Amino acid sequence: xxxxxxxxxxxxxxxxxxxxxxxxxxxxxxxxxxxxxxxxxxxxxxxxxxxxxxxxxxxxxxxxxxxxxxxxxxxxxxxxxxxxxxxxxxxxxxxxxxxxxxxxxxxxxxxxxxxxxxxxxxxxxxxxxxxxxxxxxxxxxxxxxxxxxxxxxxxxxxxxxxxxxxxxxxxxxxxxxxxxxxxxxxxxxxxxxxxxxxxxxxxxxxxxxxxxxxxxxxxxxxxxxxxxxxxxxxxxxxxxxxxxxxxxxxxxxxxxxxxxxxxxxxxxxxxxxxxxxxxxxxxxxx
Length: 286
Ligand code: C2E
Ligand code: CA
Ligand code: CA
Description:
Bound molecules: ligand C2E, calcium ion
Strand content: 15-25%
Largest sheet: 8 strands, mixed, barrel
Oligomer: single chain
Order of helices and strands: HHHEEEHHEHHEHEHEHHEHEH
Radius of gyration: 20 Å
Shape: globular
């Protein structure tokens, strides 16, 4: 375990074994070994994080974020189980479950709301993906233009042709395609220009860098203007403070999501949120 840790570390190659390492390793093993049972027990469910118009406060869409309710470990975050599902090949059926359930839940929400779902590289390259998505949409009676898939910049390989082909097929079905985590790693112009993204999601870490360093601020401004010129929408991730919100609105950013407004929540909490907002609007108009 110490050896593995030393390999992962970038700077210091010396790693001493600690009991915390063992606990982490055991947790990872447990997650791996209970994956197949989780499918049988229907333990995977989507939570939803609302996306807002930063100027009006209106909710414009929701992002589905997978959660696993484990009988022993409690709620497990996707950062722990997505890679496990990738390594066992279960990611394809996990994707279907999340999409199926999210589309069904979307029926209960206002009809102008969009639904964003996250997909990894192997999901994108899976041959049956467009058919599977259309099936889920048809079963739930949801129009294709309400669905958006998010694909992370961190997952883009060096050879991009097959990715562009798969993403184009998705767009041909009427489903929107969004570049997630832009600026978390590369912020490469090539990624912006080689494909006609419907939306670019700016990573919170890029925004942080821009607010702390003038040169990064210049590149962010240039990226925002390029994205606007290319007719893609922008969504800012991780909006956590009012100061950040004000500064982003000043920069011309329209859409965002983050803990300042709301974290991810289950469908019951989301419905409560819509009802309480509708009630507040009703009272304000009296
Ligand atoms: P992501 O797509 O970048 O999702 C945003 C993550 O940021 C979510 O973490 C969300 O809970 C968190 N977040 C939201 N607002 C804030 C904020 O204001 N500040 C900060 N610091 N964080 C915020 P989560 O739910 O743990 O998801 C982690 C990642 O797992 C996601 O990152 C996404 O890449 C992946 N993921 C989630 N669900 C799925 C899924 O169904 N399929 C696939 N393939 N990947 C998924
Ligand atoms: Ca995402
Ligand atoms: Ca993201």
